[in-house]
Design brief:
This protein is of the alpha+beta class and 130 residues long. Helices cover 11% and strands 18% of the residues. 18% of the residues are buried.
């Protein structure tokens, strides 16, 4: 598949299934970002069941995730720096595998990173090597 940018920067997303013909409800994968004036060739794509969306790489809330990525992939609020409301930006929460909607430490909600955050114990822990 070959896409031409027509003078704009854009992100490229793919899904293999449109749920109820809904773009926002489907599960999307970010593929790449293309620059102005380039032609992008995508190889090894899951034909014939592949659907593509081009998204403008605007990050209106300044959390280092583009608005299109937030709407399609992470499903976070593109107008909020911290969808969780705890001051941790959506980029950090997403890539650390935190629950994107609940403040605190809920591990591995997105399947990308297997991370668990533990609350420190009071006093000096007794550590024994196995």
């Amino acid at each position: 598949m070959t896409l031409t940018s027509n003078g704009l920067n854009y992100d490229v997303f793919r899904t293999t299934e449109l749920l109820e013909n809904s773009i926002s409800e489907s599960t999307w994968t970010w593929l790449t970002q293309a620059v102005v004036g380039t032609t992008l060739t995508l190889s090894n794509q899951p034909w014939p069941n592949a659907f593509y969306v081009l998204g403008k790489p605007c990050d209106c809330d300044g959390d280092n995730l583009t608005d299109a990525f937030e709407q399609l992939v992470s499903k976070t609020d593109p107008s909020a720096y911290s969808t969780r409301g705890d001051g941790i930006d959506d980029y950090t929460a997403y890539y650390q595998g935190r629950n994107l909607y609940v403040p605190g430490s809920v591990p591995d909600t997105n399947g990308i990173v297997n991370l668990q955050v533990f609350t420190p114990l009071r006093g000096t822990p007794n550590i024994t090597s196995l």
